[in-house]
Write a structure and sequence with these properties.
TIM Barrel, alpha/beta, eight-stranded parallel beta sheet, globular, 10 strands, two-stranded antiparallel sheet, 13 helices
Length: 336
Amino acid sequence: MDMEDIAAALVAPSKGILAADESTGTIKKRLDSIKTASTKESRRDYRELLFSAKDVGDYISGVILYDETLRQAAKDGRQLTTLLEDQHIIPGIKVDMGAKPLAFSDGELVTEGLDGLRERLAEYHDLGARFAKWRAVISIGDGAPSQYCIDANAHALARYAALCQEANIVPIVEPEVLMDGDHSIDECYAATETTLKAVFDELYKQRVVLEQMLLKPNMVVSGKDCPEQAGVDEVASKTLYCFSQTVPTAVPGIVFLSGGQPERQATEHLNAMNQLGRQPWEISYSFGRALQASALAVWQGKPANVEAAQAAFLTRARLTSAARDGEYNADMEANA
């Protein structure tokens, strides 16, 4: 498939992306929460549990992997990427090196990882990755975000995207305005709008082909600590209006991150957006915790719980798939 075909396949009807690209440090926190030691084997076992769930390809179009996972083999000797491909799931790869303090900016961050990226992308393509992801982090509060921080991250995102397309890899561009803080939904809207305008300006300057990329943004929501939380309908309408003002119609799809929202809340927001009618881009998902939390809680690191954990994962994937099509409702949650 060429890059436009891959981008279209990743946002196919009823499907979305599983973000399983937790770094070694982040996956350790996840495993610590279920009192399971983080080892190469336990990390492999957990990812294998997810990737081998029966018929998960009905709901998942692609999986973002971490470097270690892309190279790992399952217990039966097959590569984990082969498990995905056997379910008609496209392997992807996280390529950034994480957010680091931005020089001369109090508390703001910029994502690093451009050095050597061309060579790493060539290797990742040889290992089977057909799309990639780079996350930029934008915070709200105490004068943030500054235009300096937004511009620095937008430039890095665009350079990454151009290198991906040069390597025949579809870039997922992820500018995340964080939920952390007590800001209102309107403050989130303003920060998201400004960020997206800067990102697409840089993508244009770096000659990125919009038809061959996907956008992975935050939803426009209230800060976690905001005393007045916006309702589902307000989140859906303000999010789509913001994107109608900033995202070119040439972009084939928007795969929203969950950003720390609980599973059910992220599903409700996605569903409400898809119920507002056809948009210029496909409205889909690229969830991490909002797809995995239930499965992890059921698994508890025990081989005897694998089937039950897979059932929990499939249930969440099925509900999220329904929301991607605007066909989710609260009764489905209760029946599940």
